[in-house]
Amino acid sequence: DVDKAVKAARKAFELGSPWRTMDASERGRLLNKLADLVERDRLILATMEAIDGGKLFSTAYLMDLGACIKTLRYCAGWADKIHGRTVPMDGNFFTFTRHEPIGVCGQIIPWNFPLVMFIWKIAPALCCGNTVVVKPAEQTPLTALYMGSLIKE
């Protein structure tokens, strides 16, 4: 399964792929849309967190989901602001920095904060144009699976 997931993520990251050629502002728009979907399904996700990991529903609903939505919106706002700059130099030199995505990011999610850590790991990676392979904890896989369906949506 891991090999299949990494192969798919590498294919999605290839030069000329829709993800690789996507404008940064479009990545930001997609992250904002994901935040909207998380907000829409907040009740479902909080219930899953409570059932899956034994967390208090109120904590999951108010704190965890609130943090997830804020993190997605924060990263969405940064998507089109990560760029290089020109550095002044003496003489006949032209110096610049260029930020590029690095490729496939492997993300291992712990059992104790499955949804929060999922968002904290995928949002910055996707914001920067990387692709992601997520490995949720065996003890708390439900929210990661549900987030996969929201990302597809």
Calculate the terminal CA-CA distance, rounded to whole Å. Answer: 22 Å
Mean pLDDT: 94
> Considering the protein shown, what is the CATH homologous superfamily?
Aldehyde Dehydrogenase, Chain A, domain 1
Tally of separate domains: 1
**What structural class is derived from the secondary structure elements?**
mainly alpha
Instruction: Give the percentage of residues in beta strands.
Output: 5-15%
Task: Provide the CATH topology.
Answer: Aldehyde Dehydrogenase, Chain A, domain 1
GO molecular function: aldehyde dehydrogenase (NAD+) activity
Keywords: NAD, Oxidoreductase
Family: Belongs to the aldehyde dehydrogenase family.
Pfam family, one: Aldedh
Report on this structure.
Its EC number is 1.2.1.3. With 153 residues, this protein is mostly helical. The chain has one domain: 3-Layer(aba) Sandwich (Aldehyde Dehydrogenase, Chain A, domain 1), CATH 3.40.605. Helices cover 60% and strands 9% of the residues. Helix 6 links the parallel strand 3 and strand 4. The longest helix is centred in the middle third of the chain and has 22 residues. The mean pLDDT is 94.
